[in-house]
Known about the structure:
Elements: H1 2-10, E1 13-17, H2 24-39, E2 43-47, H3 54-57, E3 75-79, H4 93-97, E4 101-105, E5 116-119, H5 125-135, H6 142-155, H7 166-177, H8 182-190, H9 195-205, E6 209-211, E7 214-219, H10 221-227, H11 237-242, E8 249-255, E9 261-267, H12 274-279, E10 283-284, E11 288-293, H13 297-312
Parallel strand pairs: 1-2, 1-3, 3-4, 4-5, 7-8
Antiparallel strand pairs: 6-7, 8-9, 9-11, 10-11
The structure holds manganese (II) ion (MN).
Amino acid sequence: MDRARQRLLAARHVYIVCHITPDGDAIGSLLGMGTALQKLGKTCTLACPDPLSAKLAFLPSARQVISDPPTDQDTIVTVDVSDIGRLGSAYVAETFRSRPVINIDHHVTNTRFGSINLIRPLPSTAEVVLGLVRRLGVPLDTDIASALLMGLITDTRCFRTGNVTTRQLRTAIALMNAGAPLADLTEHLFNCEPLSTVRLWGQALAAVQTRDGVIWAEISQEMMRRSAATPSDADGLSSFLASTAGMDGALVFREQEDGRIEVSMRAGPGHDLSGVAVALGGGGHARAAGCTVDGPMNRARVRVLDAVVNALRGEAAPGRPEAGALGPPGQAGGA
Ligand SMILES: [Mn+2]
C-alpha cells in the first residue's frame, strides 16, 4: 500500500486500465482511481480495451475512457485485472516492462504481474481502490464514491454474495455519505436489462441441462444473432443459474466470434472452482471464476464439465491437458 502510494504521489501522467469485457467493478475501480488521482493534480489516461455497456456508460467520467494502449505515461495502474491476458489489446509488453506497473486487484488467482502488487482478498477491487484513495488523502466526492459503490454492488450482486460482512455495509454507508446514489446505481445495474438480454436468456434458459449437481446453459453465435445480443448480454446468467436450488455449480458456455468458448463458472457455498478455472487457462474467485477454451461447443462442454464435476466431488484436480488444447491464459469470463 505504501509503495503504491509513494509511486502514485511521484507520478505525473498515469495510465489506468481495467480488463476486457468490463463489469461494474472494473469500470468503477477505473473511474474511482482515475478521478482521485486527477484531484491530486495528476494527468490520467483512463483505458478499457472493450466498449462499456449502457449499464456502465452513464457513470460520471465514463466519457473519458478510451481503448488505446499505453504510450508515454510514466506509471501504469491496472485495476481488477487478474493476469495480463485480461488486458487484451491494452497489453504492450515493452511498455509494461519499461515502467512501474501497480497491479490493484482482489482475485485470489492474481499472477502478481506488477512491479507493485496491491492484492487484497476483498469482495471487490473497488474496496482496494478505496483503501488506497484514503491513504492518498483524497477526500471522497460524489463521482469517486459513485464509481466505487458501483464496483462494490456489482461484485457483491448488491450485498447478496457469501463474502459480504459488516465491512462492506460500512463501506457502502461511507460511500453513500459521500454522495453515492445507491438507488440510482442499483436501478441502472439491476433494473435496466436490455431487451436483447431477456431474449438471449430466454433462449439459453429454455435449454438448460444438469449433471451431477451442475447446471449449465449454452449460448451459440446463432443465438446471439437471433437476440441481437452483445457479449455483455450474457453477464449475470451464470449467477442466476447458480441460484437454482440443489445445485453445487453453474456454468455458462458462450461461443465467441472467433469460435472459442468463454466459460463462466459459479460454485455453491463451500465449493471452490478457482483451481479448475486456472487449470483450464483462466482464473477468478472460489465461487465465481471463468476461462476461455477452444471450441467447438461439444468439445468444450465435455472437457469443462468433466473438470468441474471432478473438482466439486473433491477428486484430484485434472492435470493441464496436452499443449495446444488450451488458448492463452487469463480469458476469464464473468469472474
Ligand atoms: Mn472484480
